[in-house]
Here is the input.
Amino acid sequence: MAEIQIKNVAKIFGAYQALHDINLTIADQEFMVLLGASGCGKSTLLRIIAGLETATTGEVWIGGRRIDHLSPKDRGIAMVFQNYAVFPHLTVFENIGFGLRMQKLPNDEVTRRVEKTATLMHIEQLLKRYSGELSGGQRQRVAVARALAMEPDVILMDEPLSNLDALLRMEMRAELKGVLADSKTTAIYVTHDQVEAMSMADRISVMHQGKIIQAAAPIEVYRNPSAEFVASFIGNPPMNFLPARPAGAGRWTVAGQTFDGPQADRAALQFAIRPEDMQPAEQGLTALAKVVEPLGAHLLVTCEVEGKLFRVILDSDMKVRPGETLTLAPQPDRIRWFDPETTLAVA
Amino acid sequence: MTDAVASAPGADTRKSARFLYVSAVVFLCAWVLVPIYFLLINTLSSPETVTSFPKPFLPEFDMGSLTFFAGFAGILTALKNSVVVAGMTMVMSIVIGAPAGYALSRFEFRGKGLFRLLILLTRAFPLPLLALPLAVLFIRTGLDDTAFGLAIVHTTLAIPFAVLITFSLFSGIPIELEEAAWTLGCTRLTAFTKVVLPLILPGIAASAIFAFVISWNEVFAAAVLTIENRTLTAFLLQNLDTSPLHLKFAGGFILVVPALIFIFAVRKYLFAMWGIANR
Here is the structure.
């Protein structure tokens, strides 16, 4: 059992507050992704859990044990670093076995566990090599194997795939997900890549300016963003926003069209819709096509609706020319509403 | 034919750039090698050849001057003193300099920039300015005319380099390597001995040898602070002043060669000190 609890953690660097009052519980064996742009505090949070950074205030608990005062080696964690951090003076075998040797395990046990994890990561033929003789992808595998060989309660990963090329990243993504699910460890994975986050996570914590904005399952974060920031950060291209004016009880006017919306007593709301949740129709929002990008699988059209940027993803068989006017009908159950003052979602 | 004409200007620029490059290399090599070459020739020549002109371009392999030195009274003691002082300087400057280099590279602390500047500033004081007060101080504390006293002075001369070289060595080792070691069960100390130390050991050795050479070559403090226990440089300075020319050459040769060999052995780490890639 290795449930992680982060209680009221804040971090201040001089005059800069990197983390504000973070509260997060990560279930045993859960794969949690901390997602955010660079500088949002996600790496700082990970390093506080690892013990490489100390929180200014707050507590960190792993498996019912408070660990924020312990040194990294006593926390039952293992970490995979962005630049791999494979020791250049040791062979792959000694790298993977490094932590086991530090635990003073007997030789045959070290050999057994090194060979087991090396096989798991498909690097059993590289055990005698040095890190200088490995490719980036192989080094990454060594780094993961080294962490797994420790059989930790919690495995922490700081952008482990961001130094790999796109194809390798996709391959490793799927492989890592499988290996970590089999290892039954709790995992915290930091990334700025929303595709990685969506595809690997059990739950995503979207972070912004040192706060967790939303922590939920990937599809929930995608479909029901809790705040405008999440809606505009997740999704490529992100959600479209248009201002809405009240038009009677539960009705809202958006770009000359009236939609069913929340029964909210507000002077204005933000109407939001994902680019793929619209279809050309007889009736709907009037959009002026500006740029048409055929992307193979679909057609990305950048339009203007009442002077506002508005993107729509259409079937790639559609013929759309720049300058053409489209009439787009949003799928009613996919429309979301945000309060322009608080930027939070309104149901 | 037209192709050749078209490519001619490009080839010309490349040619002149190459000429400039080669001549710069030749000039710099000559700057260093010609004096050493004459030193070598004159050392291995008989006294008559040394004072004659023109010089032969090949040495005569006359060992007269060198054998004279081998039999010169006190030279072996002076050599021993030089080695002892240089050895102590080497150990002290690494023991003091390497932790400072580590701290500069790994920790953020108030006055870090000033500290780095002050380290360099110790080299801004001319040694003659310090030597006399030091001599007085050393006589009062009883450190005068001892190898240890001189080694202390040489250590202060070598420390700036030891700090800067080790600083650049430690900075060349990603902090993640240490952090990875911490998460794998190391303390700060074991992470240092198991990960950092093996990686920087060659560089530490180089910086130690550099400290050795600084001490080996230093003459002013050695001449002022020692009387009985002269180091080789001070000993030769004292005795060669009134010696014939061929012996001066031979004495210079004896001093230059060890320093040259040491510097040659550690040359790539000295580049690291100036921020050139450490490979």
The longest helix of chain A spans residues 166-183.
